[in-house]
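JOB MANIFEST
job_type = single_chain_structure
chain_count = 1
residues = 139
[input]
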Amino acid sequence: MYICTLNSNGVKTEKVALLNVGVSHLTDIISKFDKMYAIVDILGHQFKVEQGMKLFVHRMNEAEVGSTVEFDRVLLVDNEGTVTVGTPVVEGAKVVCEVVSHLKGDKVIVFHKKRRKGYRKRKGHRQSFTELKVKEIVA
């Protein structure tokens, strides 16, 4: 049995012998290829999402923790090998997410200096994020 995977160089073929591989391992290999995913536009940023995945987006002030949020700007849906590309969005497709928490990212230090002038400025910034968990992809 042959399973083809795509890498950055082209098509790579993996050979799997049924005698050496157990059934559970074989289903794990096949399940890598038939996952449903979507590319969705959330607050101006595009994310590739799968069911059960956690992602961090810029802070959504209107969303309460524990609430459900739906995003209908789905640009692409891959349903077990069947790819649907929107023009610009896929009609009837949406991604349903649950708001897990609101948190802040790591501190980023912005340091400005002009040499030999005694000019130094140091400022910090922490970006606010909302953690989302993808519940389902409706296509």
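[summary]
The chain has two domains: 1-33, 35-138.
The helical segments are 23-31.
exit_status = 0
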